[in-house]
């Protein structure tokens, strides 16, 4: 019969378990496992105390200290050893579960639990005092060389393994080699006081920050980002982060770039696909890796690159949003997060300038990322009905203690007016109680200050008015978008312009090389090609991160919808007309709120499907309300930008079906759109800028395109007719005057430039003589040739638009054209155009390719003649023929015959030609009558002559300031373009003119007495000779 195995006592079992956990022994053993350490001195001490050489829970900590402090060859370093102890304790606890003796199992569970707790505790002690145990840790073999050099915290590999599979990429080895035992990290971070963990956490944050410095979106940023999120999700981790001295770095020379580089979160926000200054370039280079030689790559390759970048950047956005959201949810850290955001925004205020200093300002990538994250933070109050907009207090822009917004250009108020308003409000509220915020949670201060800087900010916050988080988030997001997303879109636009100019310059250089090759030209061409390649890469990087991200654009549009609805609420809501006085809350708001909304709408309108699903009615209402309201929005260029938005939304140019009903079924549009466009057309004449003369043509180009479209919509055409009738001598007459002025200037400039182009063409076609000219002269003439081509193309296009508008409006609206102060101006314009098109100089305007310059003489002649005919048909008082014939500069009776001949050859309607010829006959008769009348009057006294045009006055008026008498139609024509007295530049309007009744009576008597005299036949004959005739060689071919 076999003998039974002797039963081990609980003490022996405990000894076995602890020896397995701690890899130590108190008795010398022949065990070949080199990891097991014989604690000889410890054993001797235990024996001297009269105890058995068995490990127990009472000896556990003593044994562990001796193991860590001793100098044992081949022994593991402290941190891996302690991790191993925890893992083995965990394994033993699993084995214990199979014990049948419940009491013994319970006792052993206590032992393993205490062993795990001890291992965790000494991990903290070791990491807080790395030199305490002598045998310092060496980085794990799985770490790459970059991390070895930095000697990162040994906890970091465990965190990477905990938060996901990214550890494989980060360390170049399987995560199983560095994985934390189950439950270790939870115990390590949760069951301890803050002071012991704080230095460990701060070191971890510094390690994570170092890992992502100068890393692009193609770099391995995901493991550090996941680790960051893991750490801030721990209450102790969040508290440690916001108390770090690098949370908001301070210093005399601290600026936006320094904050991006030195703060803990800055390098994470720097991760991007957008290019940065070469001093701060990220790797891998996104442009080189994804978009090099893009013009030669397959579209599928580019789409793949776009998709990769979009996916990676959205992973970054989500991670950063989660980090900030975790911190904002806690009242202990929320204030610190808002302070960090405000410091970053304020330190980068100069990013709003046209030229940005890359050394003092944070990167575009950081602010685009921050824009995306802030928009995600805003999502809870961007619901379709914007129900929480009442939580946004306009006073925050000036009284908030965080953001510096009061120095920004306001929508209408001057800086002095803003300061005065703030001062009055502060006095009125000096004894006021805090404002009500409903059920919305207020921002709370940190429960304890963690640095001198946070102490200071905390004191300021306590003395300031409390604002809701929604309010703070709204204003911060608006400012971040201005410095981030909108600045990046501006950079993208300038890149596209640089590329366009570069391609034009390259084409010019190649043309010059064909004419006169030289080594210098080859160098210039090579340099330009390299520049264009870099520009192309940068442009595609912007496109990948911003324009291709539809969700990003739509979030931004939703935010700006809130902006415009909130702004309209400050003036009483969506209703017209606007109050006569602009509320100061609206007047003092930063101008960029509206400018950024308009810029984003313009960009989004040019991106396919970007506007799909976006409610645009609120934007449309806002634009109609304010684009012709200088009392609310002072900047005329900002109001002109609203027209640019509408121009993008026209059904024929919009890429979205969402815009189709905005013009034809929108109530405010039908009632006010045409009126406000005409008013803005007039207002834009005087912008106050030194470039106003040239700026107005581009702005009016957008207005003209929009008006041409609206004329085709019956309801808008009816509104147009009503305005022309109601405002015949008001805004419509001013509009018509500027339209005529622009037409004359643009066509005159274009025709003169055509003559210059033809001259250079003639020079270049004479090859022998051209080749003999110096190289520099040929290059300069070639540049001038291309420059003049561009000018002609633009001016002629604008002139065509203006003439087209005159043609279609005069078909149904003629009265304003025929007013005394307007009719001669219109007639002079038409005569001038007719002379240029069918007169003796016509052959000099022939071009090889007129369409290239938008020069369409046949179409232009048809439109000019239709304007003549339209006005003649509406001329019930027969004043138009006299206005035509009184033009001493361009009128010639035979031009009407020449024009009719051309019209027949180019297929104009017979009825139009007949009416045109009849008008010519009437003009000829009017000219004869005018000469008879002039002869009958004889010598006219000087006091009866208008001092401006030296013609007989019919309705003399006195100018109030200079006291000079002029003819009313002449001064009124002057006032259409200039509201100043022409003699002393004093302010002058039509209603200020004083009728000179006495002089008018004298003139009437003078005319009446001379008309009664009999005209002699000799005078009649001489008058006929004075009418200019046209020889046959003047007729157009």
TrEMBL record:
Biased composition (Polar residues): 1028-1037
Pathway: Protein modification; protein ubiquitination
Entries under Gene3D superfamilies matching the protein: Zinc/RING finger domain, C3HC4 (zinc finger) (3.30.40.10)
Biased composition (Low complexity): 446-459
Coiled-coil intervals: 518-545
Enzyme class: transferase
InterPro entries: Ub_conjug_fac_E4_core, UBE4, Ubox_domain, Znf_RING/FYVE/PHD
Record Pfam families: U-box, Ufd2P_core
Predominant location category: cytoplasm
An example Gene Ontology biological process: ERAD pathway
Biased composition (Basic and acidic residues): 1016-1027
GO cellular component: cytoplasm; nucleus; ubiquitin ligase complex
All residue ranges annotated as the U-box domain in the record: 939-1013
Protein name listed in UniProt: RING-type E3 ubiquitin transferase
Lineage of the species this protein comes from: Eukaryota, Viridiplantae, Streptophyta, Embryophyta, Tracheophyta
